[in-house]
Amino acid sequence: MDGDPAVEPEVDSFSLILPLPYRVAIIIVFGIWAWGLNLHYLHLIKIDVPALIRYPARQSHHHALHHHSTYRLATILTIPLIGSLLLFWAVTRGSKQAALSWQILPQSYLLFLALCFILPFKRMSSSGRQHFLRSLKRVSLGGLAEVQDGKFGDILLADVLTSYSKVLGDLFVSTCMLFSRKTSSTAKPDRGCGGAYLVPFIISIPSMIRLRQCLIEYSRVRRNRSAATGWGGQHLANALKYASAFPVIILSALQRSYDPSKYHMSEAGLFRLWLFFVFVNSFYSFYWDVAKDWDLSLFSSSKARNDPEYPYGLRRHRYFHAKEIYYAAIVIDLLLRCTWSIKLSPHLDHFNDLEGGIFLMELLEVTRRWMWIFLRVETEWVRNNLGPAPDDILLGEFAGKIDDD
């Protein structure tokens, strides 16, 4: 390829096609399209997502449906993204030196993306964006709304943020490289930018948010303890699930900056310890998805799993009538849970040929979360309208029912 030989090593082949800022933007916009699909399909099967998350109802039938507004916002964000990317390819033409010089293009789009969420443009789903920003501010500070104020929406948003943890890390890396004199944000990602432990810390923030939410839930149950709510043990168990991500991230960071003189453990021993916590985090999270978030009986007693009133391992009340949907979701969730835990690990990033793989895994994790939302929201709707499951982590919080539309 063309370019100054001194510059050649700074740009990997994948970043020539999709520099890091564009990857971040693509995954964010992809997530908006995915949320629109969530809203659309759940609306078709008569599940009122806005009611569950306490989103303000439409003022009249003339107002666009919520999924239509989401699609409109996604379209407004997608068209400039495609245009910016095509322009970047046209001006760089595969040149590494040109790619380094034109970082203004992807960074300008990221700025545009941020402004679209912050500025009150009325024709860009302003009420939805304002609701999102209020919820994001609340959960970012570790807060959690009361049930009547949209607690389920806060939990849903915080869980989505855990799937975007690596993307948040990449966003920081991209910004850090933009202001660095030694490199460019379109160069090969330097995930050590800002220090060896700053990016791992940023990756861990979404898990910290959910951990604190679980502890808030536990404290609320303890203050208002009753026979229906129990002592709150499941909230602590849920908190432990999010805490299990921290050893994976920390041990990964230690491996990346391994120094035999500092650690009283061999590199192989450190790797085996990291692998153990990857296993714990992956399978604990998978168990929680299936048994607690989706209320499926796969991990329940043999009697519950084999209940003749519903297919093996599922549950009695289901809005998705094809049992294969649930089984496929279980298998996909297991596979992608395992893969995502590994990709949370910053120490794997130094392999040049993994940049495309990292991007793919980030996309797959957002896709997994998109799939997870369908079943999680459906489960919540069943709990509200047909009663919570016996071991539901939100047991006793629903005094009334939300009317079906």
TrEMBL record:
Entry protein name: EXS domain-containing protein
One term under GO cellular component: membrane
Predominant cellular place of this UniProt entry's protein: membrane
Highest taxon of source: Eukaryota
Swiss-Prot/TrEMBL keywords: Membrane, Transmembrane, Transmembrane helix
Organism field: Exophiala dermatitidis (strain ATCC 34100 / CBS 525.76 / NIH/UT8656) (Black yeast)
PANTHER family: PROTEIN ERD1 HOMOLOG 2, XENOTROPIC AND POLYTROPIC RETROVIRUS RECEPTOR 1-RELATED
Subcellular location, record wording: Membrane
